[in-house]
Design a protein that fits this description.
Rossmann fold; 10 helices; single chain; 12-stranded mixed beta sheet; alpha/beta; globular
Length: 307
């Protein structure tokens, strides 16, 4: 089954050319089926790139997905055309006022991790989003800064600045093979990492509501389940395209920003050679398992979510 996207959204053509099944809302409306309603609260500067990345992963399952794009109400992006935002995104205030509910919600990262949470200009609204999910979203997936922020809001879990950026592809371990979110996972695999902050396993362990599912000896905890809030928090970037780390590295080099070559990314650590994608299959496994778990557990009547 396909993912439902507006035909004019850039991701529609990108995914169609990749062989992902996509369907217009008009065609989907003629099918006698309830699609899973998945929201994407996109906090990243490059909105279109992020749309493509997450739509690719959640659109690869056998289920019909209705993807809804959401933005913070008053925050204005400077990196995506206003016409794109006006055409395809709804402000959170409008979504909340409508009373609608979602089977799933992805909250992306944001390049503001150096700031204390309370100094983020949209922090107050974002905490309302977190609280709103408890009555209106069946399962929430917080990614990188978005996951750290959600864990801080609900559990007081602090983030810590790193002395150097964790940047590259790092080996991780499957710490909970019986988790439904890790069906098909290898014991050991690679995940792209790009962050200046971390959360610490000892502080996760001190909070009984949190369980670490994936972790790394080099860069710490990665995927954390928060069953009490029906949420997953992932601090690294399974959704990255093959060249996303390269784009970040080239940008920093061009700007004169001190940055190391992303570790374990280029063949022989040579930036002149094309990077290899060694995480794609596990990315599809994780998000496919998340969608499947939503399908198995979400109420058929969305009005029952959170009750």
């Amino acid at each position: 089954m396909p993912i439902t996207l507006p035909e004019t959204l850039p991701a529609y053509d990108v995914l169609r050319k990749e062989g992902v099944m996509v369907m217009t809302p008009e065609r989907a409306a003629r099918q006698d089926i309830r699609p899973l309603r998945i929201g994407l609260l996109n906090l990243m500067p490059k909105k279109i790139q992020t749309e493509n990345q997450f739509a690719r992963l959640i659109g690869a399952t056998p289920l019909q997905i209705d993807l809804q794009l959401i933005r913070m109400t008053d925050h204005q992006t400077r990196n995506t055309a206003a016409e794109h935002m006006e055409t395809f995104y709804r402000p959170f205030a409008e979504v909340a006022a409508s009373g609608e509910r979602f089977d799933g919600l992805i909250i992306t990262g944001a390049p503001i991790e150096h700031l204390p949470y309370e100094q983020v200009t949209y922090w107050d609204e974002l905490t309302r989003v977190f609280d709103w999910t408890q009555g209106h979203v069946h399962s929430t997936f917080g990614v990188c800064w978005g996951g750290m922020a959600m864990a801080y809001h609900f559990h007081g879990l602090p983030k810590h600045l790193l002395a150097a950026k964790a940047f590259g592809c790092f080996r991780h371990r499957n710490l909970c093979p019986t988790s439904p979110y890790l069906r098909g996972f290898s014991d050991d695999f690679v995940i792209p990492v790009s962050r200046w902050t971390e959360v610490r396993q000892t502080e996760i362990d001190a909070r009984p509501g949190l369980v670490t599912l994936l972790g790394s000896d080099e860069v710490g905890p990665c995927l954390v389940e928060d069953a009490g809030h029906r949420a997953l928090y992932i601090f690294n970037h399974f959704e990255y395209d093959s060249d996303t780390l390269k784009q970040e590295y080239d940008r920093d080099v061009a700007n004169g920003t001190p940055i190391n070559v992303p570790m374990n990314y280029y063949p022989d650590d040579d930036p002149a050679r094309p990077p290899l994608n060694r995480w794609r299959s596990h990315a599809h496994l994780l998000y496919g398992n998340w969608i499947n778990e939503i399908y198995q557990t979400t109420p058929y009547d969305l009005a029952q979510i959170g009750r």
